[in-house]
Write a structure and sequence with these properties.
Residues 1-37 form the signal peptide. InterPro entries: Peptide/Ni-bd, SBP_5, SBP_5_CS, SBP_5_dom. It comes from Mesorhizobium escarrei. This is Glutathione ABC transporter substrate-binding protein. With 541 residues, the chain is of the alpha+beta class. The chain is built from 16 helices and 21 strands. It has helices spanning 32-35, 65-71, 127-138, 147-156, 182-188, 197-203, 255-263, 278-282, 312-320, 324-331, 362-369, 394-406, 419-426, 447-452, 470-480, 485-501, and strands at 45-50, 79-81, 92-94, 97-102, 108-113, 160-167, 170-175, 218-224, 228-233, 246-251, 269-270, 287-291, 297-302, 336-338, 379-384, 411-416, 434-440, 506-511, 514-518, 521-522, 538-539. It has a seven-stranded mixed β-sheet, with helices on both faces. The longest helix is centred in the last third of the chain and has 17 residues, at 485-501. 53% of the residues are buried.
Length: 541
Amino acid sequence: MRQVGALFGSTLPFPARKVKALLGALLLFPLGNFAEAQEPKFGGTLIVATTNDTPDLDIQKYTSSSQHNALLPIFDGLVEKDWTADADFPPIVPGLATSWSASADGKTYTFKLREGVKFHDGTPFNAEAANFNFQRMTNKEHPYYDQQAGSAALGVLKGLKGSMVVDEYTFQIELSEPNAGLIEALASLPNYYIMSPAAFEKYGKDAIGQNAVGTGPFKLVEWVRGQRTVMARNDDYWGKKPYVDQMVYRPIIEPAARAAALKAGEVQIAWDLPVDQVESFKSDTKYNVYLRGIPATKVIECWQASGPFSDKRVRKAVNMAIDRDTLANVILKGTAVPATQIYGIGSASYDPSLPVFEKYDPEAATALLAETSFPDGFNFFIITSPENEPVAGALQAYEFVQANLAEIGVNMEIRVRDNAVFGEVYMKAKADDECVTFDRGYDTDFILDMGYTGSGCVPNGMNDQCYKNDEVDALLQKAYTAANIEEWRKLHQQAQKLIIDDSGTIPLVHGLRPMAALTSVKNWLPAKAWLQYPGNAWLEN
């Protein structure tokens, strides 16, 4: 969300709860840039080196932060997170809806919409436009229904049934069952941001992905896949207008290349620095460097329907063989902290009381493995796509884990694939010896529902390792009918503890996401989130 002041006078039935920061490691370097009492300046072009490209510009189709970050400045949601807030958990604030409320049975949400807002093509935003978008996501008979957009919407929001227009500026979302987490999901996931109905009619179903038309603070100027997304300030924006004339996102996949572009002055902001260059950037007065906790946990997830990882003792032994402290502090040079859980720092259900996921004990791991059908170890492989992992140092991390596991006789092969191949692998049933790696988490707590619900085993859902636990399923189901968001989160925390006891996944570290900017960039503080919005920044001459 870009307009912090829009919060006042709004109805927030489920206010966001801050989460305690993790240890003293979560530091911001430095604060001076953000706190300067300088007069902001208008003008200039802000160029940002991002980590990945977007296949097209249809914001409703994707669940990856790399795609959403590239499109966030162009679109608005009904409700949003304040991605500019200096908060452990970015608060929920109004967007295209000024207020919202839930019915007594929790199945109908009513939104009062902001009046006088126009899309970039000059057409009005109203309840008809909101309904068009939600029907496009949920109604297979809609002329512009897209299966990928529909799967993304329904894969995260269980029970999303439909929507309707009440009057010109009143819109309702209907659910088949209560969902206390609905507002958080709508605020966190740009899948539900609003696109221009007129643009669909003008460009057609197949070409809408090349023509992004929203209501956001920036308008699309040019998109060249793999090279740049160019946006210009929307001078008719309904909220706080950006200071810069233009913003350019340059996808630079290799971390070292992003760092080089920043050093050369080709970009002014670089996301996700290589771990071995963070200290040199911090010691150079030309840059401001930030280590901000994000709700992301680097995980290895292995097929559990059959094979070695179907045995809880095998999973536990593998977890016990990993030295997470050395991984975080030595291999990743303090750009991460040892994983204590599945939820990452900044997630609402992150539990600061939990210890490290498993105590490092290779001798005990060897003894436990000896009780299984694999006393002498076994072989498996991981499919990894580091460009899709914002937690720094992916390959270094996996090579270190590979060495750890070799000590107990378990041989892990690392197979690097591009992002498209990884996506296909993730969404299919796997071989007994097949695992995927990625950064699990997002700016919403639906990660357990997506990844650990037994009925959601791929390809029928997003449970990529086919993890099943009836007690976990019961807790997640109960959470949907929770009386309020606090109860919803407590139930998710209980479910997570059961998954931890099961060694239901292999978490490695929670990322702090090193980022840097030239000191000429003012008024930018990276969010403790996957999604980043630098559009409030201004440039010093």
